[in-house]
Design goal:
mainly alpha, 2 strands, about 65% helix, globular
Length: about 350
């Protein structure tokens, strides 16, 4: 919005030219989202407490989590509000990337909100029925993927692998189910990770910073040619979205760090996971995002392995899934699990950025 409003006056006020720079707008998108989180965080916590919108803890979870019962949830509302306002203010409203980002945030966020709402007002840890929740995620994913498929016809279907400078495969029509699985998978992976104070929000900060760097170099001809990665015209605008996610997540982490005053709930985790997946699709980093969000992937895999092993062998591989609960039951303190997972997330981020040069 600022770009469209202020740039026409650049002839009279040359300093306004700074609004054309993506790095400037990304930095202030992060600051804006952070300030919104700081300002409205206490108000949301107070409002949720007043309405008794507390978290219901699963009965089969670690006993140490019982004290968390009643902690306000649906904090994802704050994250979404901060990101959406920042995107509308700082991102190019004429860019297709802006609007597909908003579709993702609102679409997945709405599913999470319904799930959280049902949990809160039914006073149960079971919210939206799995089949309805999964179906809704597929519908939102189909809408997003079809927009990308028809908008970028001819280039969207190419699949790139880390360490390879040229596409290894043209998925053609198979791109559609592949991309849907990626979005639904990443959305649920972040959701599964959101089980300890600050764990998911801290990892999202790391992933957001990494995606911000990647979107910037992907959207510049000179940098993408130098690094020998696919150039995607206009995708640099996604750096603003990525940094808005970082700013909102940092602001939310202020209240979500142990002992948490508020949880993001599915409203936040589903929308953040889905949007990270969308950024990966738009920048042709569908496979690299598996490394960038490596901790999220490991958390999701732990659940899959646990379920498959129990059904086929009648035995559990982990003490409890997702993976962070396994380490809790092994005797690790919650803060130790969170910080060590953050460290691993940082290592995944460094590894993913190194692949940009190793082609």
């Amino acid at each position: 919005m600022f770009k469209e409003i202020l740039l026409p006056f650049v002839d009279k006020f040359t300093f306004l030219n700074i609004f054309q720079y993506i790095t400037f707008r990304a930095a202030y998108a992060a600051v804006t989202a952070l300030l919104i989180s700081f300002i409205f965080g206490p108000k949301l916590i107070k409002a949720l407490k007043k309405r008794k919108a507390g978290q219901e803890i699963r009965e089969d979870g670690p006993e140490t989590h019982l004290v968390k019962s009643g902690t306000p949830t649906m904090g994802g509302i704050l994250i979404l509000f901060a990101i959406i306002i920042s995107v509308l203010l700082w991102q190019d409203l004429g860019s297709y990337y802006t609007w597909i980002s908003l579709i993702s945030l609102v679409g997945f966020g709405a599913i999470g909100f319904v799930d959280d709402y049902l949990k809160v007002f039914r006073k149960s840890s079971a919210g939206l029925q799995a089949r309805f929740k999964f179906s809704a995620q597929i519908v939102v994913s189909i809408i997003i993927v079809l927009i990308i498929y028809f908008k970028d016809a001819g280039s969207a279907t190419y699949l790139y692998l880390p360490f390879f400078k040229n596409p290894v495969l043209d998925l053609s029509l198979m791109y559609i189910p592949f991309a849907i699985i990626l979005l639904v998978g990443f959305s649920n992976a972040v959701n599964l990770t959101d089980g300890l104070d600050g764990l998911a929000s801290g990892l999202v900060i790391i992933v957001g910073l990494t995606m911000g760097i990647i979107t910037y170099v992907t959207g510049r001809v000179d940098y993408s040619e130098y690094l020998m990665i696919p150039y995607v015209a206009g995708s640099g605008e996604l750096m603003i979205l990525s940094f808005a996610i970082v700013g909102a997540s940092i602001g939310f982490l202020w209240y979500n760090t142990h002992p948490a005053e508020i949880f993001m709930g599915d409203t936040g985790s589903l929308s953040l996971g889905g949007t990270i997946g969308v950024i990966a699709l738009l920048t042709k980093k569908e496979m690299l995002v598996i490394i960038i969000g490596g901790v999220f992937v490991l958390e999701a895999l732990s659940v899959i392995i646990q379920v498959v092993s129990f059904k086929l062998r009648g035995k559990r591989v982990f003490k409890m899934a997702p993976l962070h609960h396994h380490f809790e039951l092994k005797g690790w303190a919650e803060s130790k699990v969170v910080i060590r997972f953050w460290i691993i997330g940082g290592l995944f981020a460094i590894l993913s950025l190194s692949t940009l040069k190793i082609q």
